[in-house]
Automatic annotation (TrEMBL):
Keywords in alphabetical order: Membrane, Transmembrane, Transmembrane helix
InterPro entries hit by this protein: FAD/NAD-bd_sf, HpyO/CreE_NAD-binding, L-asp_N-monooxygenase_NS-form
Taxon lineage: Bacteria, Pseudomonadati, Pseudomonadota, Alphaproteobacteria, Hyphomicrobiales
Organism, as annotated: Ancylobacter polymorphus
Protein name: FAD-dependent oxidoreductase
Signal peptide: none
The keyword Cell membrane is assigned to this record: no
Positions of the FAD-dependent urate hydroxylase HpyO/Asp monooxygenase CreE-like FAD/NAD(P)-binding domain: 15-164
Length: 486
């Protein structure tokens, strides 16, 4: 793998914008599927490929949320990461990663190291441009990508593997607490939690995976004060089962056409699983595996209904927390230093550095007032803002080459992963990898799902390259994008 500082335009058949796990997985599998492809450019401002936001965290409290045996860059070798983990010595450096039930939950940064190592093994076929993509413009032979270091990449095919938008705090909260030293709208910024003092009373807005990670970090840093985590439903992410079972149930044969029918089928399957001595976890695992079929069987209005009413319940059951993090939450709840509430913010006032918050309980309607020293946002990615916040997507939207999906989960794509333009037709040579395609694809947040979808995109790009190579009418290996601009 080589890193380049740009002096003049680079011309390549394929450029990938975003070098987190999604972009890395597309590149790795594309080069395997298309051995004649000499190189792939990845445009990523981070110093190392394969990490992205998820696997760049240096905090040892942040662990992978599924066992290492289910995290692999190569799905047909499901223990590939775990085997690397055992051989690398990483487990010896972190004894807490080993669990008594034989499952390994290392720090997320270790998985990032694993992915980076797989890309590095490809040598100069991977070209890393350590800059941010700022715009994508159509050109005669494909697309011209302008980067933050002043460089230009000319590519026939562009794969968008861009990240989620950062968390978006409630407007009233952000306005009232602007410039407060312990208001952290993006707690993932390096060193952000250092501002929280050991005895601070902390409010966390959100109760999912991000909240769990923040509590684990605060606990590791020696925080002794009280923490209140709130969300509309007050749901906490679940842990892993004591015993593993194969996925259970069938939701792909004659899939449900309504959200209500889907819920009834899931509940029935859970009851059957429990009667057979299994846990609910294996049923939700099957729902995830068959998620694309389930999602695509639902009409648009039923997808919207599912998101509106059931998404929080899905998230806390599907996206489970590592046992080490679960233990921290359990200990703090038992000690009375962590509370979870189903409530809404009714008002926020600041008096000096004290933060007074008015809350309405979701279940009783009771209104209470509490005082905090620090407020952290853990609401998860702001999917609906991705086109506004990402300059590349904003440029593509202005050019008519991409648009948000109808549910505002990300980018609208075709079944084979091509971006859909303003006029509703596929944009030639622009593919979307990663979770921002989930409005069309369905379940696309867990790493196994992201990996399998990356392989689909790599296959589609490889097939496109083969067609271009044998086309008698194509003067170059690049596909013109001019015709897509309306």
């Amino acid at each position: 793998m080589s890193e380049v500082a740009q002096q003049r335009p680079i011309h390549v058949p394929v450029a990938i914008i975003g070098g987190g796990f999604s972009g890395a997985a597309v590149a790795w599998h594309l080069l395997r599927l298309h051995p004649r492809l000499e190189r792939v450019v990845i445009i990523e401002p981070r110093a190392e490929l394969g990490r992205g936001l998820a696997y760049s965290a240096t905090d040892p409290s942040h662990r992978i949320n599924v066992p290492a045996t289910r995290m692999s860059l190569i799905p047909d070798q499901p223990t590939h990461f775990n085997d690397w983990l055992e051989a690398s010595g990483a487990l010896e450096a972190d004894p807490a990663a080993r669990r008594s039930e034989g499952r390994n939950f290392p720090a997320r940064a270790v998985f990032g190291t694993y992915v980076a190592a797989q890309l590095a093994a490809l040598g100069p076929r991977i070209v890393h441009i350590a800059a941010a993509a700022e715009a994508v413009d159509p050109s005669e032979d494909g697309y011209r990508i302008r980067t933050s270091d002043g460089g230009t990449v000319e590519a026939g095919i562009v794969v968008l593997a861009v990240a989620h938008a950062p968390p978006s705090p409630p407007t009233g909260l952000a306005r009232a607490l602007a410039f407060h030293p312990r208001f952290l709208p993006d707690p993932w910024q390096a060193g952000a939690l250092d501002a929280v003092r050991p005895d601070d009373r902390v409010l966390i807005v959100g109760t999912g995976l991000t909240m769990a990670d923040l509590v684990a970090t605060l606990d590791r840093l020696g925080h002794r004060g009280t923490i209140l985590a709130l969300s509309r439903r007050g749901l906490r992410s679940r842990g892993h089962p004591a015993a593993l079972h194969d996925p259970y149930g069938d939701f792909a044969t004659d899939p449900a056409r309504t959200a209500g029918a889907l819920v009834r089928r899931i509940r029935a399957a859970v009851a059957e699983a429990v009667a057979a001595g299994k846990s609910w976890h294996c049923v939700l695992d099957q729902v995830r595996l068959q998620g694309s079929t389930i999602w695509n069987a639902l009409p648009l209005h039923e997808r919207a209904r599912l998101l509106r009413h059931l998404r929080p319940f899905w998230d806390v059951h599907r996206f489970r927390i590592a046992p080490q993090v679960e233990e921290v939450l359990d200990q703090r709840i038992a000690a009375g230093t962590l509370r979870l509430r189903a409530a809404s913010l009714q008002g926020v006032e600041r008096q000096s550095d004290a933060i007074h918050v008015t809350l309405r309980d979701r279940r009783t309607g009771a209104v209470t007032r509490e005082t905090f020293d620090a407020v952290l946002t853990a609401t998860g990615p702001a999917h609906g803002r991705v086109f506004a916040d990402n300059p590349v997507l904003a440029a593509l939207e202005r050019a008519g080459l991409a648009r948000p999906d109808q549910l505002r989960l990300g980018i609208e794509v075709t079944a084979d992963g091509r971006a859909i333009g303003r006029d509703g037709t596929p944009t030639p040579g622009v593919y979307v990898a990663g979770p921002l395609a989930r409005g069309t694809v369905g379940e696309l947040m867990g790493l196994p799902d992201v990996t399998n979808y990356a392989i689909r995109i790599a296959g589609a790009v490889a097939a496109r390259l083969e067609r271009d190579a044998v086309s008698d009418n194509a003067p170059t290996t690049y596909a013109s994008a001019r015709s897509a601009v309306k």
